[in-house]
Amino acid sequence: MAKNSLIGGSIWEEYSQKVQDLMNHPQNMGELTEEDAKNMGGKLIIADFGAESCGDAVRLYWIVDEATEVIKAAKFKSFGCGTAIASSDTMAELCIGKTVSEAVKITNIDVEKAMRDTPDIPAVPPQKMHCSVMAYDVIKAAAASYKGVDAASFEDDIIVCECARVSLGTIKEVIKINNLKTVEEITNYTKAGAFCKSCIKPGGHEAREYYLVDILRDTRAEMEHDHLLAISNSKIEGSNTVNFDDLTVVKKFQQIEAIIDENIRPMLVMDGGNLEILDIKEGSDGMTDVYIRYLGACSGCASSSTGTLFAIEAVLQEKLSKNIRILPI
Amino acid sequence: MRVYLDNNATTIVDPKVFADMEPYFCQMYGNPNSLHQFGSESHPALRKAMDQLYAGINASDDDDIVITSCATESNNWVIKSIYNDYILNGDKDHIITSEVEHPAVGASCKFLEGLGVKVTYLPVNTDGVISVEDLKNAITDKTALVSIMWANNETGMIFPIEEIGAICKERGVLFHTDAVQAIGKIPVDVKKANVDFLSFSAHKFHGPKGVGALYIKGGQQLSPFFHGGEHMGGRRSGTLNVAGIVGMGKAMELAVEALDFEKSNVRRLRDKLEDALLQIPETMVVGTKEQRVPNTILISVKGIEGEAMLWDLNQSGIGASTGSACASEALESNPVMEAIGAEADLAHTALRLSLSRFTTEAEIDFAIEVIQKAVVRLRAISSTYAYAPEWHVSKL
Fold first, then answer.
1. How far is CA B143 from CA A26, A277, B19, B176, in A?
2. Partner A contacted by B110 (CB < 8 A)
3. Closest-CA residue to B5 (of B343, B302, B209, B277)
4. Residue A226: what pLDDT?
5. Do A26 and B382 touch (CB under 8 A)?
6. Which are the contacts of B358, defined by CB distance < 8 A and separation ≥ 6?
7. Do A81 and B383 touch (CB under 8 A)?
8. Which of residues 66-85 of A touch B (CB under 8 A)?
9. Is this model's pTM higher than 0.80 or not?
10. ipTM of the assembly?
11. Is B326 on the interface with A (CB under 8 A)?
């Protein structure tokens, strides 16, 4: 919340021109029949996702060439807002010409990106992202139907939010793909937790097996674990692919300490001084704040808050990251 | 053609109201509390406006009608001051309200729940109205306040205010009503209804935005919501919004004069629109016409999500609402549709159409045509509605 959001606005103003055009004139709206399938020499697949009671429901029709698994035709029908119509339309468009296995890989981000007018500006406001997730879910349902397997083989079929029918698999995936950090974001992207709110945390009107707060915490922990694994792997491989800014605080501490030992401490010691690192904190502005204490001759030295400080900062910034800030205590 | 059918959200300022307000911007702009001619010049108009407001709701000279910025402020003031004056330092700890109040009441009650106040949210029946029996049963010795709206913003349903007022009086409980959707649509009489507190906003009855009032029955204790200033007898500080008050007074006078027109002409157009839309298969309107304010329709159109409908209407120049306009960015289904226990399927299909005395017959004819076309287009896209082409051919 800040200046630009205080007055609010028409959410429709945040829709891309493509979204608006598709809402007025969807290109792939309609049905496919057994007769169409026969004429095209393929298999008809019909998949549903969502429900009218949740405010969103979509039906996807495919005709799949069984020899090549290529989706030769795709159409949709949708109960939902304009964004749901536009993203279902885009989703159907993206399926055409892909194999079933390729189509399963289409994510909600792909659908949303395909509706952008310019690469950097989102096609819909954040609270409308859940409509593109619907599109992503129905593809999985269609693929499951085609392959004759349970949809669970594509996604976890544990339903976390009964009102919006959102599964555990979807929530985890959406958190990971979109790097979501709050329950509100999960609700914006999936609608989970938007209705009776029982699934948000314990204490709602009915007890749930899974709660969004726990899923968010665990998934974030999993993401952190994967991230650490990546750092550790990069270390084993000897490559320096992980950015300083992406390191954990402990790793940052080790690297800063090493640079100070090698490049800074010898100079200070020569003049009868020294320093110790008290703490390292991640600032909310993306900076890494390094709290230090000067020892010996350095403490009380006039240059410790000017020249010496700037030199330490400059060395660390050059060797590690420009986002390092030194704060003498 | 542009057709405005969202008058429960806000209304056009009546040009006669605007004309009365105009001199108080650039000519008589003095602070009415100042001790000079510039300030005093506005006093006659302020006095007249207060007379118009008192007359409009039949308040007596012993009562206070305190000007606020809007009904949201008035509602917050009553509920939070009840906490200060009767709950925090008294032996009462209970408030009764309904499940379908405007968030200004509902969220204020929720806030007090966080401070330990017990709140009963009375359910509504399928017509969207509370039962007087439920209210009677909910009142206890600990009840400090009953807060029930006069008419619902979504459905237009009128609540049994006189009965509720009589019960509250008999049981010695204070009674507040949010009358924001009643004024200018049906007669509002604070004496007949035994009301202790009543809130309203000028912009809902063709007055300006940003000005409203709280009626406080004579002798009722209510600590100020704003501190620091002697305006409005110390009850509500802040320099008087002279033009706004003048406009609200005039708007009240015109609204009361137009009540018969509302009951006959506005209602006739509303009924015409409603009857035409109910010809569309699988539609449903909440509540009977007689029990509703004369300008409102909350209709559910099976198979069409409310926001998709708004999109199509907006493309044709028609402004309507899916529910509470204040919350139109929220994902939730229409809370009133849920409260009345409508089939879950219908909760996302609500369309609110609200007329005013400025709505014309030609506008209603146009709206009927546009809505019928939108229904055909959107039901053809809909995955949950079995499209009936024979209806399409025969009706259009």
1. 56, 61, 46, 13
2. no
3. B277
4. 82
5. no
6. B4, B11, B12, B206
7. no
8. 76-82, 84-85
9. no
10. 0.82
11. no
